[in-house]
Amino acid sequence: MMEEALVIQKVPKESLQIAVALVEVSSLKSRSSVNFLLALAAVVYMAVNVVCYAINYFDPDDPTVAVTSPLTFHLLEFWATFFFNVVEVLALIYSSRTLNKITASPTFLKLIFFLNVASSFIAALLVSINLEKFETVSHELEYANELIMATIDLILLGSLLTRRCQGGRVGIVQVRTTCGVVIAVAIAIIQLFVYNGLTDGEQLAHYFEFTFEVLSAGITFWFTMDSKFLADATMRELLLACQDQAV
């Protein structure tokens, strides 16, 4: 131990700082790459919902006009939502900002993660096992889960907008963020009402669902690309600092 301590003492302080900075640069590079992949996943999910919107227009339950079977349509819908919920969780975990800066309650965020992923996986699995018997309960789970997705959207959008505001603009940003999420929650509640309250309201409820999910995918894309750019900017600053110390 004494010999190791002597060796460390002989290492110049500048060299240690450069070594630590290079380790941080490696971590930032990985974070930037992951956020780029998550942003691409968000775009793919947005495209999937546009396709589902088109499929829904031709009413999969009507064999005379349907372009695909109800099973194919629902498998695409439910499993895409599950994988996107995983993307949202990863977006927060690999964010360039710490969870304490994103939300005041990390414990609450963990609960949201659990409910979001678990409920969407259960719904997708039930549909895969037997669409005819589990379609209704799976849709109820999915539409209720969109209220949780709206909460995650609030966290992501609030983090994005707050970072861009200064001084007195904080209040304005909070109002805009709240209004945006209220709209998302309203869409989720409306589709629950349409699905349960109207006769044969599934097709109409799907239009609300896909609109909501396109908005959610857009927010996640913005958040992940912002995290990537922040990681890249921090990485450049560290590399420049290392070059200055090496000179």
CA-based shape: elongated
Question: What is the terminal-to-terminal distance?
Answer: 32 Å
Low-confidence stretches: 1-8
Structural class: mainly alpha
Question: What's the gyration radius in Å?
Answer: 23 Å
Residue share in β-strands: under 5%
Tally the helices. 8
Task: Count the beta strands.
Answer: 0
Q: Can you give the helix content as a percent range? A: over 70%
Average pLDDT, all residues: 81
Order of helices and strands: HHHHHHHH
The major β-sheet equals:
none
How would you portray this structure in words?
This protein starts with a helix and ends with a helix. The protein is mainly α and 247 residues long.
Annotate the secondary structure layout:
Blueprint: H1 2-10, H2 13-57, H3 70-93, H4 99-102, H5 106-129, H6 131-164, H7 169-197, H8 202-246
Helix pairs in contact: 2-3, 2-8, 3-5, 3-6, 3-8, 5-6, 6-7, 6-8, 7-8
Question: What descriptive keywords fit this protein?
Answer:
single chain; 247 residues; mainly alpha; disordered N terminus
